[in-house]
Amino acid sequence: MKRIQRLPDHLVNQIAAGEVVERPASALKEMLENSLDAGAGKISVDLAQGGIKLIRVTDNGSGIAPDDLPLALDRHATSKIHSLSDLESVATLGFRGEGLASVASVSRLTLTSRPQDSAHAHQIVAIDGTLHPVEPAAHPEGTSVEVVDLYFNTPARRKFLKSEATEYAHCSATFERIALAHPHVEFLLRHNGKVVQRLPAQTLAERIGAILGRDFVDAALTVDAEAAGLTLRGLVASPTYSKASRDAQYFYVNGRFVRDKLAQHAIRQAFRDVLHHERHPCYALFLTLPPEGVDVNVHPTKIEVRFRESQAIHQFVFHGVNKVLANTVAGSTPQQVG
Ligand code: ADP
Ligand code: MG
Predict the structure, then answer these.
(1) Which residues belong to any copy of the DNA mismatch repair protein S5 domain (predicted)?
(2) Domain-by-domain residue ranges, the chain?
(3) Does the beta carbon of 142 lie inside 6 Å of ligand 1?
């Protein structure tokens, strides 16, 4: 008979990392969400070798108190929720307290931070999940997280990484999904030292144009629906501007990019009469609802959500999109967003 043993924390983190940090882009997502949760108005991303060699995210957000630096890398330690009732109405992108702990367990991570209104910055280094002592450092107000050599200590996982170009493409897609939902935040993306994207603080229409292209925005119809605590806003391309692939489908729930079958289905239904079935509608849509109406804690990376009133959501999304499409088909002038 084999005896039962408690796993060491380090191994627990590495196992969790398997779920949370599938690839460099997933580490980048955790880091960007932390910067946004910290209220950053400006976020810079540096990647090297598709993020495999380096992911550095620097923000001008709230910062982290020196004493909290080790906690930030501790599993299940978070400043974002305190109780089960907080979990039911979570308004931040993170709350599970395992993002940084997971990333740190499979990389060499340096966390440097200077809280707002503090004169000093401090830094903590974690290598292979082992924390080194907190030391003074130089940093403006805000936080930098630097992740080097992802999976250097877990070669079996490292083997699953694809080419630099593919990993870079995933990082870039993650960056764009997040940037799209936060037009008032300034973003910068560099890869191998070269600036790839520079996004000033701008309006939503401008941000959508910067990411999905002016031609998308020019061919787009405005969705603006509201009912019973729900809102659906954003742009859908007119049926003449469809794509053969799904990569221009952006759907957000309370600011979070999600892949939601229910919403995809509702939007497809709305397009059914106007779009050839092999074409995919293009859209950037933002659904908001009271946090109690949606469970975001169903997936480690929160890419999926569960709605309490799924039928009502389906109908709301369907009608919101269908209404603007019906207007164009009926020949009235489509509302353009510029
Ligand atoms: P979660 O985001 O779920 O709380 P994380 O492991 O991602 O868990 O982060 C742990 C904690 O570290 C956060 O709750 C937050 O207090 C702090 N933190 C992480 N990144 C930043 C950042 N860029 N700015 C300020 N605080 C941060
Ligand atoms: Mg987080």
Answers:
(1) 208-326
(2) 9-199, 212-329
(3) no
Q: pTM score, two decimals? A: 0.92
235 within 8 A of 225, measured Cβ to Cβ: no
pLDDT for 82-101, tens place per residue?
998 888 888 899 888 899 99
Pocket residue to mutate for ligand 1, from 42, 68, 78, 296, most atoms within 8 A of Cβ: 78
Pick the CATH number of 212-329 from 3.40.50.720, 3.40.50.620, 3.30.230.10, 3.40.910.10: 3.30.230.10
| pLDDT tens figures, 248-295 | 899 999 999 999 999 999 999 999 878 887 788 899 999 999 999 999
C-alpha 123 to ligand 2 mean position (Å): 18
Rounded distance from Cα 274 to ligand 1 centre (Å): 45
Nearest protein Cα to ligand 1, atom 2 = 94
Instruction: Write down the CATH number for the domain with range 9-199.
Output: 3.30.565.10
Protein residue with least CA distance to atom 20, ligand 1: 34
Q: Which residues of 318-337 are buried (b: 16+ CB within 10 A; e: fewer)?
A: bebbbebbeebeeeeebeeb
